[in-house]
Amino acid sequence: MRGPLFYAKILLFGEYGIIKDSKGLAIPYNSYRGALKAAKNLSGEAEKSNNCLVKFYNYLVGLDTDLVSFNLSEFKEDLENGLYFDSSIPQGYGVGSSGALVASIYDKYANDKITVLENLTRDKLLKLKGIFSLMESFFHGKSSGLDPLNSYLSLPILINSKTNIEPAGIPSQKEGKGAVFLLDSEQVGETEPMVSIFMNKMKNEGFRKMLNEEFAFHTDACIEDFLRGNVKSLFGNVKKLSKVVLANFKPMIPTSFHKVWEQGIQTNDYYLKLCGSGGGGYILGFTEDFEKAKKKLKDYRLELVYRF
């Protein structure tokens, strides 16, 4: 067997904010992908994946919900026949490795599944997000369900609030000098501990005030600029967001990147922000001159995501 491909995702804007009901914008990232496969003799990564899927199967068996049901007997049989998730999506890098896996399991085994070809009303999108949130909680302890939703639909998604999400049309790429890029921290980040740090910080009134008045404000402005193609204004707002993140989310930024982050803000050669929950993995970069940013960040591996 070979299942359909499910792609990685990048949350361009809204990390942490979407937990607290502010805006977010996620886009598919087709450089990395995964698909369900089966093999008689499993070894290495395939065997590890099969073992993980067995645990996931047991989790789904115990799931008490009216939102979704699965063909668990088929899932079990496939697991016994060597089912695994063959993926190039790096784990712990903030680009949705578990999201793509969840999307593939829903696609293959969910009963009465909502398909991509349907007229995707807001209610259907919210139902899918709710299902994916339940499923992906197995991996992260708490999940918004957004990563699997993005991977499943393979569409840019605009999160206005927890109860208001919609597919978004993003401006087509230009052959300009500006770019969005990924910077490889060469460290694996884990979502759960980072979310725990965030939840602890939320107990602090000053942090909550900052999140509502600065972080969410700049995030919303960035999303609006990006969707409207207001590039000049976008970079001004990304710079403000980068400053706020550096000042308030230091535990989520690997220590060795604090200086690199600061240099971008001071020189205006690039601006960095978290990609997913942080703590390692990829860091997201924005620059008005990608060639210049590459020279400044020559010690790091960069991947181009989007051109302005």
TrEMBL record:
Record bears the keyword Transferase: yes
A single MF term (Gene Ontology): kinase activity
UniProt keyword list: Kinase, Transferase
InterPro entries per UniProt: GHMP_kinase_C_sf, HddA/FKP, Ribosomal_Su5_D2-typ_SF, Ribsml_uS5_D2-typ_fold_subgr
UniProt keyword ATP-binding present: no
Protein name: Mevalonate kinase
Organism: Asprobacillus argus
